[in-house]
Design brief:
This protein has about 450 residues and is α/β, with parallel strands linked by helices. It has helices at about 15-25, 30-40, 55-65, 85-95, 115-125, 135-140, 160-165, 165-175, 190-200, 230-240, 255-265, 280-290, 325-330, 355-365, 400-410, 440-450; strands at about 45-50, 75-80, 105-110, 130, 150-155, 180-185, 205-210, 220-225, 245-250, 270-275, 295-300, 315-320, 340-350, 370, 385-390, 420-425, 430-435, 460. The protein has a seven-stranded parallel β-sheet, sandwiched between helices. Strands 10-11-9-12-13-8-14 form a seven-stranded parallel β-sheet, sandwiched between helices. A four-stranded antiparallel β-sheet has the order 16-17-15-18, with helices on both faces.
């Protein structure tokens, strides 16, 4: 048995070690083991790697080791398909850079006002930029973002960026960067469009594939014959039968996500939809509520779910099969992580049998479809999410911190500390999870009292 490679075995700058300690990283994951030596050696890399494989740390260590903090100009750019993923990558890179003094990292995405981003860039240019292609190109066209000194370019979740129509913006951005840059491309799947993109942008890349071929052993899969006319009732029956603590239901169409979530809510499930047509604030709110256990069923499109960074999802349900086997693997890879067992449930109609055949080919074995009887009428005893969420209309710009919220709840409001769950703060609002039975009491107490000596508008979501 080979001895696992540790980060301490690599020739990393001492400035990167505090970040690894802060994140609790000691042993390299398979993608890090295969990609990091080449990345640190300056090579271009194209890697097929699923969510949760550790790829952010792999490219993060590579781009941070190249940064000259004395130079106030962009030296590394990470392009992501969605704002949620960009925020997630930005947070992890900031933690990795804990030991690097005076490093500025900016997350620049669409869906939020342009003016503050322009002001921030004018005041002090960042050394590291994370963003979505549309907004990055817009800032470059306004001469607010100069990438002439770029050393490292990362395309994260490249397949989804192409799915979302970002091909042209990506090519326009790349044209304005130095030819001698290092380029790192990460993708969950390798369609032909990705290979074409890689050929035009990467120089003699090392090609790596991790976790792309077989279903993880920790995931138990079941496939059910779908009745197209009663698919939602079958979905509800599956959720009641298997009763996962939390579930992500994948729909192929955005409009289906709203309809399915609405139907599940009608049956009594704590269900919310997540898709790209939603306003950014609403998407943030849904992700917060799912992460803090105020919602236990998330009905999502593939692209919207890319920002989902939750390790303990009880089950993944395919309302219908995706069009290719790699996407199926990527979906179900969100359950059974961090050493836990996972559950994957799929509804398969007759017209989807060709898609099932592709999954069978990838898994090297025949798949048997089971039968599930549709739900009849409105059920009793539908499991509720254990928490509820209070939204406070104040955030980081109001100097409101999680500790202030906990103090108000456990002090003046009289709640036990165990009744308070996750807290998420944004610039102008904050969210706190409260055990469902005590949420109304907490709302009443906070509205009649003060937080940090001030009164704020508070709502129960």
């Amino acid at each position: 048995m080979t001895t696992p490679i540790q980060f301490s075995d690599l020739a990393l700058s001492p400035l990167l070690l505090p970040g690894l300690d802060a994140l609790g990283y000691h042993v390299l994951t398979p993608i890090q083991e295969q990609a990091l030596p080449a990345i640190l050696d300056g090579r271009d890399v194209i890697a097929q790697a699923p969510t949760g494989s550790g790829k952010t740390a792999a490219f993060g260590l590579g781009l941070l080791r190249n940064i000259d903090v004395a130079a106030a100009r962009p030296q590394a750019l990470v392009l992501c398909p969605t704002r949620e993923l960009a925020d997630q990558v930005g947070q992890q890179l900031r933690k990795l850079a804990t030991g690097i003094p005076n490093l500025k990292l900016s997350v620049l995405c669409g869906g939020i006002p342009l003016a503050p981003q322009l002001a921030s860039l004018a005041q002090h240019a960042p050394q590291v930029v994370v963003g979505t292609p549309g907004r990055i190109l817009e800032l470059m066209q306004k001469d607010a973002l100069d990438l002439r000194d770029l050393r490292t370019l990362v395309l994260d979740e490249a397949d989804r960026m192409l799915d979302m129509g970002f091909d042209e913006p990506i090519r326009a951005i790349v044209k304005r960067t130095p030819k001698e840059r290092q380029t790192l491309l990460f993708s969950a799947t390798f369609p032909e469009a990705i290979r074409t993109l890689a050929q035009t942008m990467l120089r003699d890349p090392l090609e790596i594939s991790v976790g792309g071929g077989a279903q993880p052993a920790a995931i138990t899969s079941h496939f059910f014959t779908a009745d197209p006319a009663r698919r939602v009732q079958q979905l509800a029956a599956l959720l009641l039968q298997f009763n996962p603590d939390s579930a992500v239901v994948f729909c192929n169409m955005r409009k289906d996500a709203d309809e399915v979530a609405g139907s599940l809510a009608h049956y009594g499930f704590s269900a919310l939809a997540l898709h790209g047509d939603m306003e950014q604030r609403d998407r943030d709110e849904v992700l917060v509520r799912f992460a803090n256990r105020s919602c236990n069923v998330l009905v999502a499109s593939d692209v919207a779910a890319r920002g989902l960074d939750i390790d303990d999802i009880g089950a993944v349900v395919n309302f219908e099969l995706p069009s290719d086997a790699d996407t199926y693997l990527h979906r179900i890879g969100r359950t059974g992580r961090a050493g836990r067992s996972g559950l994957a449930l799929s509804l398969v109609a007759e017209k989807e049998l060709d898609r099932l055949a592709m999954i069978e080919q990838q898994q090297n074995g025949a798949i048997k479809r089971e039968h599930i009887h549709p739900l009849e009428g409105r059920p009793r005893g539908v499991p509720q999410a254990p928490m509820a969420t209070l939204r406070i209309d104040a955030g980081r710009t109001d100097k409101l911190r999680p500790g202030d919220i906990v103090g108000a709840l456990t002090g003046e409001a009289g709640l036990a500390k165990e009744a308070v769950g996750k807290i998420a703060t944004f610039p102008t609002r904050s969210y706190v999870a409260i055990t469902r039975k005590q949420a109304s009491q907490a709302l009443e107490k906070l509205r009649s009292g003060k937080i940090k000596g001030r009164r704020f508008r508070i709502h129960l979501l």
